[in-house]
Write the structure tokens for this entry.
Amino acid sequence: MTKKTKLLSAMAIGAAALAAGVGLAGTLSVPNSFSPGTAISSAQVNANFSAVQTAVNGKQDAMASGCSAGSALQSIAQDGTATCAAIPPPAAFGLTLAGSSSNPGLSVTNDGPGTAIYGASDGGTGVWGQTNSLTGSAGVVAMGADNAHPALTIAQGGLRVAGAGVGTPTAAFTVVANSANTFAYTIHLDNPLTNGNPGAILIVTHNLAASNDVQFPYPVGVDYGTTASGNSIWFIYREDLQNIPIGTAFNVLVITP
């Protein structure tokens, strides 16, 4: 066998091997087949390589089309066609625990000097707790080592009561004196956290902005009692027993023991 024949045989074998490799990914046929001892020509070998080149380029073209924004490559068909699938949104919670037991859904205790649970967020919620029980259970409970150590530390940011506003049924709210809730030197409070709850702790401050910038330089207190209609409520009262002007506003923070 001449050197030229050996070279062409090697090229033919290479083309066949490449065709076999590409064949794993899809269907490929070459125009010429060779047997040992059979004379071949460069034109036949080039035709085989050309068939391989066409198949490979065709598959690359199909894959190069890519996927649209918000989707990712899921699979490649035998003919080289790419199938894309939408990328699912991130989970609302990194860890979700649900149950119907009276025990906590998640309980973490750290016996060392560190923090039991640390929540941080660049946009969402760091720690979320919810209870559907109406028996007084809390969504999140924080407990310090003892009464002399903090149970909850705010490293940065403030304390927010979602939805708080004038007359809202939230733990912090604003009450404005009007003809329906004000009787002489008292303002009756109507809030689900204070109604029927004589043990509630109320912190009250005058809200100048909500009072249309009208000053109210008088001391006030809070008391719990029963109205003429039989409702057990908390009320704000002016300690000098003088009438509270209509339009006077107070911020109220309710702490439930």
In short: Residues 96 and 201 are 33 Å apart (CA to CA). Confidence is low (pLDDT under 50) at residues 3-8, 17-26. The two ends are 101 Å apart (CA to CA).
